């Protein structure tokens, strides 16, 4: 592991790295002014188009596996399964062992359909008790124990620079699950209410905090049932207004959402305490855009920045102005002392041309950001990777 304190990282999957010659790959990273490789240590299912895949251009990863070696005895009822990619060659370990590049463990926590199917008692359940098998609940003790053990295990087994924790909280209802389908139009109000978890542990924890969780569950269920029985869909803009009204007028709902933030913050604090002190622990707080909407998943940006080493923002925005505004608002909320990183996608759908991407790098740098990451080696064209090197060359 090597690091000079600066963070210029490339996100990558282990199955893509398994096809690369390590010396040549690291040399190419350095040519692009990159110093860290952020490798997916645990990941979910997908169907990925790989522009420069050597063994094929469409790839289906093993669902809900870890792409590194683990120590089985460290885990409780919920245990990780090691992928064939890790078992066959451990590309994560191959790169982590090098002293000319730093490795960061990109660690997906609660988004795991495989573990959800094996442990349905530990998944999110909506107001009707329907299980969301793709989403472990961060209020469930077994799910929390798994997240803590996995993070500490990776940091102890490998000489990594640190970890980036993704999905430490509740996933949104709309999350691209396999063949996700509905003939009822989506809007922010409906998606929000369907995404709330009222499992036994959420209701018990919220009740202990003085919240009428059962009354809230019944109220949310009745609202959704009435909406599904209506004769027409509600336009998204009206649904957004409904959601905003509920957030203002339903005090129990507001308290419940703040309680959810406390749950996620405490989980990250537990992970921070379990992970070796010299490993940088960053949190990817949300898949929501803009980042200020992270509360939707139980992420309190200010609290998480204090509980972890810092925050790593996905600035996947449709324009340079939106990228700068998103970052600026988070910086305003967190203050100048909080450590922030930004993840950008060097190409479509965020940037149609190199000029916009370079302008975003320069704009963020002018706003005080020095730590960048780029998503994702396996997904983007090689020509788009070259944008990274030229942007840094013009910046430096």
In short:
The protein has about 400 residues and is an alpha/beta fold. About 45% of the residues lie in helices and about 15% in strands.
Structure, explained:
By secondary structure, the chain is α/β, with parallel strands linked by helices. It is 43% helix and 14% strand. It has a single domain (8-180, 261-395), classed as TIM Barrel, CATH 3.20.20. The protein has helices at 14-17, 22-31, 84-89, 91-96, 113-118, 141-157, 188-195, 200-208, 213-228, 236-249, 251-274, 301-307, 320-334, 354-366, 382-395; strands at residues 8-12, 36-42, 48-49, 58-59, 102-108, 123-125, 131-136, 162-166, 280-284, 310-314, 340-344, 372-374. It has an eight-stranded parallel β-barrel with strand order 1-2-5-8-9-10-11-12. Strands 3-4 form a two-stranded antiparallel sheet. The longest helix has 24 residues, at 251-274. It is globular and about 60 Å long. The mean pLDDT is 96. This is Alanine-rich protein SCI7.12c. It comes from Kaistia hirudinis.
Helix and strand arrangement:
Blueprint: E1 8-12, H1 14-17, H2 22-31, E2 36-42, E3 48-49, E4 58-59, H3 84-89, H4 91-96, E5 102-108, H5 113-118, E6 123-125, E7 131-136, H6 141-157, E8 162-166, H7 188-195, H8 200-208, H9 213-228, H10 236-249, H11 251-274, E9 280-284, H12 301-307, E10 310-314, H13 320-334, E11 340-344, H14 354-366, E12 372-374, H15 382-395
Parallel strand pairs: 1-2, 1-12, 2-5, 5-8, 8-9, 9-10, 10-11, 11-12
Antiparallel strand pairs: 3-4, 6-7
Helix pairs in contact: 6-11, 7-10, 13-14, 14-15
Protein name: Alanine-rich protein SCI7.12c
